[in-house]
Amino acid sequence: MTHIHLQDYNDAVLQLVTLPNILLNWYMSPASASFRESITSSEVSFPPVDSTAPDELPITSELVAAFQDSLLAFKISLRFFAGSWETFDLQQSLSLTKQEANGDRTYDMVLTSETIYRVESLSALIELMKKAVSQHEYQCLVAAKVLYFGVGGGVSEFVARVEGQSGRVETVWEKSAGVGRKIMQVHWP
């Protein structure tokens, strides 16, 4: 079973942005082929699978049921968590997945995007990232703007904080034109 946990400070973001985007990505993928093929002329019009043409995806009970069936077929478990990093109960979230690594419950992969913009939140984020992975093989990737204007956060402050806690940051992708962006891999000793 693959366990995917998604977290955002705001519950509304998870409900109105995250979940609909997951549904849309599933609908556009080969995993939804049987659902798309089963659609007959109905009152609801589903868009063609064409990521270049913007369209609306109607979220019907049939679509949700097919999505849930697909998750089961592919052995994927999704969980959503709302709240701050300080309140995220890592052990409880991992106990739900029954994952064990050297006696410690950990994640194999941590992905985070647009989360380093507030300097005041960096300590809690970094602490959670450190606890979320263990000594076994893992990926810890952070996608961010190089600098967040007006709020003080950015890559240099994040890197300094990680290195101050004996971590190491490696840039694995960078865009310098326009708004600078990076994807960084974080390594812990």
Structure in words:
By secondary structure, this protein is α/β, with parallel strands linked by helices. The chain folds into two domains: 1-83, no CATH class; 106-189, Vaccinia Virus protein VP39 (Rossmann fold, 3-Layer(aba) Sandwich). It contains six helices and six strands. The strands form two sheets. Strands 3-4-6-5 form a four-stranded mixed sheet, covered by helices on one side. Strands 1-2 form a two-stranded parallel sheet. Strand 3 (109-113), helix 5 (122-132) and strand 4 form a beta-alpha-beta unit. The model has no long low-confidence stretch (mean pLDDT 89).
List the topology elements.
Blueprint: E1 2-8, H1 11-28, H2 33-38, H3 61-73, E2 76-82, H4 90-95, E3 109-113, H5 122-132, E4 139-145, H6 155-164, E5 168-175, E6 181-187
Parallel strand pairs: 1-2, 3-4
Antiparallel strand pairs: 4-6, 5-6
The CATH top-level class label of the largest domain: Alpha Beta
CATH architect. name of the largest domain: 3-Layer(aba) Sandwich
Morphology: globular
Spatial order of strands in the largest sheet: 3-4-6-5
What is the number of E strands? 6
Largest sheet properties: 4 strands, mixed
Distance between the termini: 28 Å
CA-atom Rg in angstroms: 19 Å
| Number of helices, counting only DSSP H or I runs of 4 residues or more | 6
CATH superfamily caption of the largest domain: Vaccinia Virus protein VP39
Q: How would you classify the helix and strand content by structural class? A: alpha/beta
Question: Which fold does the CATH topology of the largest domain refer to?
Answer: Rossmann fold
Strand content: 15-25%
Order of helices and strands: EHHHEHEHEHEE
Q: Low-confidence spans: pLDDT under 50, at least 5 residues?
A: none
Mean pLDDT metric: 89
Q: What is the domain tally? A: 2
Helix content: 25-40%
